[in-house]
Amino acid sequence: MLNLVLLPGWGISADCLQPLAEALQQRFPKAQLQILPLPRFTQPNLAHALTELQEQLPSTPWLIGWSLGGMLALQLTQQLPVAGVITIASNACFTQRPDWPWAMAQEDFAAFQQGCAAQLTSTLKRFSLLCSQGADNPRQLAKQLLPFKQTPEQASHGLSLLQQLDNRQLLAQLAVPQLHILAQQDALVPLACSSALQQLAHQAHIATFNGSHALVIEQPAALATRMAHFIREADDAE
């Protein structure tokens, strides 16, 4: 049985993954497919969040994660057997490190954290615009990015996890099939990270699409086709 699990990004409703889920279901009619909302992050504790997600996962799933969901999907490979991992618009580190400059600047991230604590609603609207920046019609796309209902404290905890996560060592060691999809006009995850990701994960497949960080909503059919090809190739190789 093919189990496909989709994980959304920070601050955005899991419902936004429905078009991608439907496109994948068309390509795998017999697959069991679920969209798994992220935890509400009642504390900035990665282990707690991973346990909450793991308890809802089926046997040996394909994990497909967008942005923070992709970073958490990689972490989940240490918790249970998975068939493979596909990330969409996910970085090894979301914020810059001295040895990982291909990410969001720490001062920009800090300003974003402050905005969440002070004015969550307006900050989420700004985040939606950043997600859609680079799209053909960014404002129309931003309106489709429904916010995830959470308190300012929960939003801040989620951001803390996003800042803490460093998947570089995990990417280098991961043995399961992995596909990392990046958007060429992404305003949050620089396309420049693609070469560094490939150097980290020699065995990984990396694909780029024309689009914004909200690629999952812009091009669900094209993404599903690329993912289906990768999943079938990986299954045939076993």
Automatic annotation (TrEMBL):
It comes from the Bacteria. It holds the Pfam family Abhydrolase_1. GO terms for molecular function: hydrolase activity. InterPro entries: AB_hydrolase_1, AB_hydrolase_fold. Keywords: Hydrolase. Residues 32-219 form the AB hydrolase-1 domain. This is Alpha/beta fold hydrolase. It comes from Thiopseudomonas alkaliphila.
